[in-house]
Design a protein that fits this description.
By secondary structure, the protein is an alpha/beta fold. Helix content is 33%, strand content 16%. Helix 4 crosses helix 9 and helix 7 runs parallel beside helix 8. The structure holds pyridoxal-5'-phosphate. InterPro entries: Aminotrans_3, Aminotrans_3_PPA_site, PyrdxlP-dep_Trfase, PyrdxlP-dep_Trfase_major, PyrdxlP-dep_Trfase_small.
């Protein structure tokens, strides 16, 4: 096939564009050859991105987009130090981890130095899903138990074992049968959840629910292998668990002979600003038994890691089965992982996450005073959520409005997404080089969009307490950002982790 526009140059930089085909041709070929469940952002008007740098992405015409959502390009898209480290190592050697190589051990040592001492043994794998699947295997082998507790709205990956523990993927599908060994605890969401900010001790109440689940499992003759949770729930709606929750859950779970798995795939590597790992927000007295890492670890290079204790690792080895992973821990991935850690330190990106994250949160808090559609602003560092509601008392999710915000921002070349069980939480998780000017820009645009939306809805701060029945006066798109709406139920999802499983499933 003949390339159509191979030597196009981007308008703003003079650099060679990576565009080979005209946009329509790319779309046609995608429809023909790529599985239909692999959704695309803004499906009725998709964006073709051909290059990126820092917190910016560029389309085929050289149009720049501000990226507020890409937590994979952690230290900035195509960071030159990371690219250089990968390219240099690729020129020299890339092979599996059955040979001795310094990159592997030096990288393991560097990662370990960011963690509590007891988390000292690494397994390098290639994706967040692989990391979580291995974490489950470690837990099952170490404990000899089978039952897993997961959280409502959790997402942990796309492989079969993880769909089972990811209610985010199946909770709205009536024909999915839950795995009998999986138990779902309430999400520790103090805004919309079972126990809210006005509860005297939400951490204990949510942890007691986990204890109750353990009790019910025991009554049926089961035994707990693991409790698994993201340190801060991301797809679940940017949820910040109340301090002390993890400690109490860990106590109940360990008493039952289980282990605590902290999924840091989205939130690790300094994003939360005050700490390198988000589980550390709970306090120095909390240490998980297994930590899984992914997305930001390689700044876009497919790599990930599971870190655990010596005891868990030894029990895993005792099974007698060798663990071999063709690509995990190869010299190129380790060189890239080391470069990412170097850049975080060299450019003080954790400090930037703290400063810019705080600034962004303050700006959004000010917007909340002005806009009745904003129900809650929550976050740590550059992991921030803004939940839109049509009624601040009833917390009626403003789902269509959230999608409208996302769509209008896209028209103004800003990429943001909405998530959570009602898809009404605007989530900010940009590359950590995001600046306060970027924060000013996105908040200013959101301010305008919300003003327009509230005018259309006739919403004012003083009459928002009972606005549930207000209907939007102008037409909102039926499908935004890959989500389809039908009777308030999301049927499909285009961003992030993909599309729900549609088939009835029985396993184990
Ligand atoms: C919290 C969490 N864990 C695990 C995964 C799976 O990672 P991957 O898509 O790299 O397999 C994701 C992906 O979105 C995630 O958000």
């Amino acid at each position: 096939m003949k390339p159509v526009c191979q030597s196009a140059r981007t308008a703003d930089s003079g650099r060679m564009s990576a565009e080979i085909l005209e946009k329509k041709k790319t779309l046609d070929l995608r429809k023909k050859h790529i599985g239909p469940s692999c959704k695309i952002f803004f499906s009725h008007d998709p964006i073709k991105i051909v290059r990126a740098r820092g917190q910016y992405m560029y389309d085929e015409k050289g149009q720049r987009y501000l990226d507020c959502i890409n937590n994979v390009a952690h230290v900035g898209h195509c960071h030159p130090d990371v690219v250089k480290a990968g390219a240099e190592q690729m020129e020299l050697l890339n092979t599996n981890s059955r040979f001795l190589h310094d990159n592997l051990v030096l990288y393991a040592q560097r990662l370990q130095a960011t963690l509590p001492n007891k988390l000292s043994v690494c397994y390098f794998v290639n994706s967040g899903s692989e990391a979580n699947d291995l974490a489950l295997r470690l837990a099952l082998q170490y404990t000899g138990h089978k039952d897993i507790i997961t959280l409502e709205n959790a997402y942990h990956g796309h492989v079969s074992s993880l769909i089972d523990i990811s209610p985010y993927k199946f909770h709205h599908l009536s024909d999915v049968e839950q795995n009998q060994f999986v138990h779902v605890a309430p999400s520790p969401d103090v805004y919309r959840g079972k126990y809210r900010a006005d509860h005297p001790n939400p951490a204990k109440a949510y942890a007691d629910d986990v204890k109750d689940i353990i009790g019910r499992v025991h009554e049926k003759g089961g035994k707990i292998a693991a409790f698994t949770a993201e340190s801060l729930q991301s797809c679940g709606g940017q949820v910040i668990p109340p301090p002390g929750y993890f400690q109490q859950v860990a106590e109940h779970v360990r008493q039952a002979g289980g282990v605590f798995i902290a999924d840091e795939v989205q939130v690790g590597f300094g994003r939360v600003g005050t700490h390198f790992w988000a589980f550390q927000l709970q306090g120095a007295d909390f240490v998980p038994d297994i930590v899984t890492m992914g997305k930001p670890i390689g700044n876009g290079h497919p790599m990930s890691c599971v870190v655990t204790t010596k005891e868990v690792a030894e029990a895993f080895a005792l099974s007698g089965m060798e663990y071999f992973n063709t690509f995990g821990g190869n010299p190129v991935s380790c060189a890239i992982g080391l470069a990412v850690l170097d850049v975080i330190v060299k450019e003080d990106l954790q400090g930037n996450a703290l400063r810019v994250g705080q600034y962004l949160t303050e700006l959004l808090e000010k917007q909340k005073e002005k806009h009745p559609l904003i129900g809650d602003v929550r976050g740590r560092g550059l992991f921030v959520g803004m939940e839109l509601v049509k009624d601040r008392l009833k917390l009626t999710p403003a789902t269509a409005e959230a999608q409208e915000v996302i769509y209008k921002l896209k028209e103004q070349y800003i990429l943001l997404s909405a998530d959570g069980p009602h898809r009404n939480v605007l989530k900010f998780k940009p590359p950590l080089c995001f600046t306060s000017e970027d924060a000013d820009l996105v908040v200013e645009k959101i301010d305008h969009i919300l003003t327009e939306l509230e005018e259309a809805l006739g919403l004012k701060l003083h009459n928002t307490l009972n606005a549930e029945n207000d209907s939007i006066k102008r037409k909102l798109p039926a499908e935004e950002n890959g989500h389809q709406y039908h009777s308030g139920l999301i049927l499909n999802r285009g961003s992030g982790p993909g599309v729900p499983q549609q088939t009835k499933r029985h396993r184990r």
